[in-house]
Each structure stands twice: as C-alpha cells, then as structure tokens.
Amino acid sequence: MNPAAPNPVFRALVELLASHPLLLLFTVAGLGYLLGRIRLRGFGLGVAAVLFVGLAAGALDPRLALPEIVYEFGLVLFVYMVGLASGPGFFAGLRRRGLRDTIFALVVLLVTTGVSWLIGRLLKLPPPLLAGLFTGSLTNTPALAAVLERVGGVQEPLALPAVGYSLAYPIGVLIVIGACYLFPRLWPESGLPERPGEEGDVEPPHSVAVKVTREDVAGIPIRELWPRLPAAARHVVVSRLQRAAHQEIVTGSTTLAVGDVVTLVGSAEALHQVVPHLGTITTARPDLDRSQLDFRRVFVSNREVAGRRIRDLKLKERCGATITRVKRGDVDLVPSADMVLELGDQVRVVAPRDRLPAVARLLGDSYRQLSEVDVPSLSLGLALGLLVGLVPIPLPGGTVLRLGFAGGPLVVALILGLLGRTGPIVWIQPHNANLTLRQLGLILFLAGVSTRSGHALAETLRTSGWAIIAGAALVAASFSLVAFVLGLRFFKIPMPVLTGMVAGLQTQPATLAFATEQARSEQPNTGYAAVYPIAMVGKILLAQLLLAG
Fold it and tell me: 348: which strand partners?
C-alpha cells in the first residue's frame, strides 16, 4: 500500500463536500463558530474563526471552494446592515464634537497607510499581499472585500490578500490590545473624563424625585421653563408630577408649584446640573399610584411610527402619555423630543391606566413583526448602494477608485440610516432582523472568500510567511503608537475615550471589550461609536491605494 496515497475516507469526504457546496458552507460555518468560542485568557477569534476554517478546507483540496456569489452576497448584506445601524451615531458624532474625531481618525489611518507602504517596500511584499496584511492588522473585513474586488476574479492574486489578512488578524488584535494595556499605565494622568452630558453619549438613565422649592420656577409652563435651564435639561425627561395626593403626566402647559414632587429621568451629570434649579432631591419618593397612572414597556413595531420623532407622535395630546426611557438593543437611552424611534425600540410609557392600550396600539407592540425583514426597503437600499459602488472616483495621476460592492452599500446605508424613512419607505430594519442579517452576511463572506483562497495558503506561507508576520506586527505597533501619541499629545483626548477610539479605528469588538473592562466605565463605548463608521469607510478606500504599489 502506498503510504502517500490519500485515505479513502478522507477522499470520500472531500468528494462529498466538493459536490455539495451548501454542505461545505454549513460545515465551515459550524466548525468556525465552535473554534471561535474557544477563549484563551479572555481572547477568542469569534466569528473570524470561520475564515481560518475555510482557509484550512481550501488548502486540503482546490475543489473545496464555494461559488463567488456566496461571498459577494454576504459582504453586501453585512456592510449594508452595519451602515444602517451606524448612520445616526456617525452623523451625531460629527454634530456633537465637530470635526475633532473625524480629523483624528483620518490622520491616524493615513499615517498608518503610509507606514504600511514603507513596510511593504522593505519586506518586498506584493501589493495584493500588503493590502491584505493592512486589512488584517486593522481587522477590517469590508476593506479586505474591497481589495478582493479590486484585484478582480478569483485567481491566484485573490488568494494573497486573504492569506495576508488571515495571518495578520490575530497579530493585530493582540498587539493593539497590548497597547491599550500599556499606554494607560505610561500616561495615568490622562484619565480625566470627557465632558459629560453631551448629546448622543450613551449612559444608563437615572431617575430621581425632586421637591420643588424654588419660587422663581413656580407658575411657569414647562415649555417656557425648560429652555431657561442649563443646556443639559434637553436630556432630562419629566416623567410625572405629584401634587398633594394627585399624580399626573407633565405636559408643556403644566406649571410647577412649591411643594410639588416631580420625577426626573436623565443621565447622572444632566440631573446634577438641572436639579438645583428646581429644588432638592427628596428621599421620600412617591410611589406610582397605579390607580391614577401606570407604566408599560411597549415595542415599536408600527412602520407608520418608525422613523418619526417623538414630538411628532403627540402622545401627550392623543393619549395623555409620555415616554421616559427607550431601550435600543441592550442599551437604555434617555429620550428627547427630537429622538427618532426605530423599529425594535422598547419604550417605557407612563400614562393613565385606561389609556395604555391605545398607546400600545399606536406603537404596534408586536414582537412577531419585529422579526420580519422589510424586503422592499432592503432590496431598494442594496440596489442603490450597488449603483453608487459602480461610480468611478478619479484621483490625481490617472488612478480611478470605486467604492465597489463593499463601500457603495456602506455609504448609502449610513445616509439611509440617518434619514430613517423617506415617505412610506422605512429604511431602518428592526434591530433583531438587522443583527441576524449582519451575522448571516459575515458568515457567508468569510466562508466564501476563505475556501476560494485556501489552496494558495501553503505556498504563501513557505515563501512569505515570516515577512507577513513581521509586517503585521510592525503595522499594528505603528498604528497603536501613532493613535495614542496623537490622541494624547495633539488632540488632548482623555485616555478612557481614546482607548475606545483606538478600538473603533481597528473596528475590533474584542479590543473594545478589553478597553471597557480596563476603564471600568462606559467612556470607551463613546469613543468607539465616534470613529467606527469613518474608520470603516476610510480603510475600504485606503486599502485599495496600497494595491497601486
């Protein structure tokens, strides 16, 4: 018997998977998820492990390659859903802190791209391999997809970016996490918090009962009183008022009187600024008299309501109700009159007991509807994104860039996510549906591109393996050094926020989780959300520049 001959069982398994692409897809995805759940000292690959399993499968036999449409469809779906969810936060960040965060992100990414180009020249890496190394060190899958699309076809050159990405990915994560551990200890004095109370900052709501003692606020309607208070009052909701034994919802025409007890909901800092202008916090907090007022958590599932501002719903006028909290995903938010409700939001409503059913009917309150995908909205948005991706962008020197099927849908989704709705079309998908589609798209992309690139893995490792590893370490270390030095010394960003911004620039949730644990606060989340979308778009474009050599 020839010892070099393939095992019959192995040969039969390869034949089975090669002849049934769907079986190959689900095998790679399932094994990848199992591998991704393995954690060493708190670090795990997560869904990125699907890429490594796919590369291993493709390396076993060139026939173990999924059709090209699999990774193309997966990528388009993934980036579009990410853009829809990130759009409001991206544009809110621009309004909130001006251009500081955007300029910081672009400078760091541009410098890192230049350093990557120099490293590629020194190590004599082919441009496709260097571009993959860049996307892997900064752990950005859409940027890898843009590189693959620019390379064109699924021939030998396409394998180089995928192999570079797969080798650089874990190195990039470990080095940047190490930097997030090291730099806060080198500059401990930089841990001052960001100025709190800014619009869009995510902080769990607090509730306090305030006894009105200031005579200068008595007799003034709330709609006239609130603009006279500090700016933080915009982020404070007056839930209800108790006067003697009577409880009522506060409306714009409600006037306060000395001795009233009002329940306020807002961030800790906003409440700290507003309370002294009304009175003092009382520990004798009145219980909600549910014979007069009641509360209920209601799902927003009515598409006529989604994409509209709370003020436009006129809940107080129509139902005598007020929204005191909004839970979006796993985050509780303090509502404002200008907050736009999204499908899947869970709102806490306070209203007279007999009016709560009317509020529920208005908002929808159907969990089943929240699991349904709005197919016309999704299809139109994706089609528009793909069209935008085809538009050529001329650059100096005759170079032409295209956003492609990675960047086009992402840019369009950011805009549509901000708009929320256009006439009868609600662009934002329900939160649960968004997460499901996003995860499905990412799995399809990783499995598709890795199985089509695995056959070149062994050869690339043999010829350029150590160069890729060294290059990935240098790129990740340079990125970390540039980001922390610029953020601390030039942009004066507090360390807790900066570590979140570094995670956002790397678009790496594992780095964010580490930064949040180290900071013991929610400030890294603020930094992450501020730069994540611009980092996503920026790396898609910059990675393509590296292909020019």
Answer: 297, 325
